[in-house]
Design a protein that fits this description.
Blueprint: E1 6-14, H1 20-28, E2 46-52, E3 55-61, H2 72-86, E4 90-96, H3 102-114, E5 118-123, H4 132-145, E6 150-153, H5 159-171, H6 190-206, E7 214-224, E8 227-236, H7 239-246, H8 251-268, E9 271-280, H9 288-293
Parallel strand pairs: 1-3, 1-4, 4-5, 5-6, 8-9
Antiparallel strand pairs: 2-3, 7-8
Helix pairs in contact: 6-8
Length: about 300
């Protein structure tokens, strides 16, 4: 018996940079998954767990589905996102403002196969507050495309909007036992969390200078009383990217390490010793063996 508990597995899907990770972090009230202004920030299937009162929501943050899946890397991301749909009780389709295109059509096709209840989330709605007629017209268009349970315009950065969404989600919760302890917020390890922090710092610091061909491998992670020791390698595909990340006299790599160290010190309440290396692994994003080695096989 569930003793009045409700647990729901929710897939959060959409095009790259639709705001999926930001929404999940906002719902949990803390950072669980990497975010940046650039698309395709999420690379792995990440379960973020939000438990409040008798409700537990397990949000699966997926890589943004990309129509131009020309490399083994992008194909692997798309495969991960599609597998997530079939394992879910509810789907949140995140729309990037008032935009609908071939990516959304592809997601819709997959959703139709799975026949899973879905809510359409029109994100970044604060950009259109002065154009209410445009919002209403777009909502009508979305309504015609699929049998969405509800269509919800919101901004994933607005607390009131996020709180409203949580109330809506409770209407679709499934009565069953919690899958995770009430105080657990993710099923990922600190080793994985560390790799996400490093990658996020790289994306935010270098913006368009470094493409998404940067993979983080944690070579060593050791927790001791009062201290944590980490060694990590940043794999890039080109020598020029290696020089950019390292920077003049190692300035950039030191700054990345400093920022990650400060965040991990707060998270672990220990002294953190983190050492970073940059290695050129040519064409790793098209090499199935290296993709598996770097943890991108689904």
């Amino acid at each position: 018996m569930s003793d009045g508990h409700f647990t729901t597995v929710i897939a959060v899907v959409g095009r790259p940079n639709a705001g999926k990770s930001t929404l999940i972090n906002s719902l949990l009230g803390q950072k669980i998954v990497a975010t940046s202004r650039r698309p395709q920030t999420t690379r792995h299937r990440i379960n973020a767990i939000h438990t409040k009162d008798n409700y537990q929501f397990i949000f699966t943050d997926t890589p943004g589905i990309n129509q131009n899946s020309r490399t083994a890397f992008l194909r692997e991301l798309n495969k991960t996102a599609c597998v997530v749909l079939s394992d879910s009780d509810l789907i949140l389709l995140m729309l990037d403002g008032l935009s609908w295109g071939t990516v959304e059509d592809a997601i819709l096709k997959q959703m139709t196969r799975e026949n899973i209840p879905c809510l359409a989330i029109i994100n970044k709605i604060d950009r259109y507050r002065q154009n209410r007629l445009d919002i209403l017209e777009f909502m009508k268009d979305v309504e015609q495309k699929y049998g969405f349970m509800e269509i919800i315009p919101l901004s994933s950065r607005k607390l009131n909007d996020v709180n409203y969404l949580e109330k809506v989600l409770r209407k679709y919760a499934i009565k069953q036992e919690f899958m995770f302890p009430a105080d657990q917020v993710t099923d990922q390890s600190m080793r994985f969390y560390t790799s996400e922090l490093i990658r996020e710092r790289i994306l935010r610091r270098f913006n368009k200078e470094i493409p998404y061909s940067a993979a983080i491998v944690i070579d060593h992670y050791e927790e001791l009383p009062g201290e944590t020791h980490i060694k990590a390698t940043i794999h890039v595909e080109h020598e020029s990217h290696k020089h950019i990340i390292i920077g003049s006299r190692g300035h950039n790599i030191k700054e990345i390490g400093k920022q990650v160290r400060e965040m991990l010190c707060k998270e672990t309440d220990t002294h953190v010793d983190i050492r970073l290396w940059v290695k050129v692994s040519r064409s790793w994003s098209t090499n199935p063996k290296l993709l598996q080695e770097f943890g991108y096989d689904s």
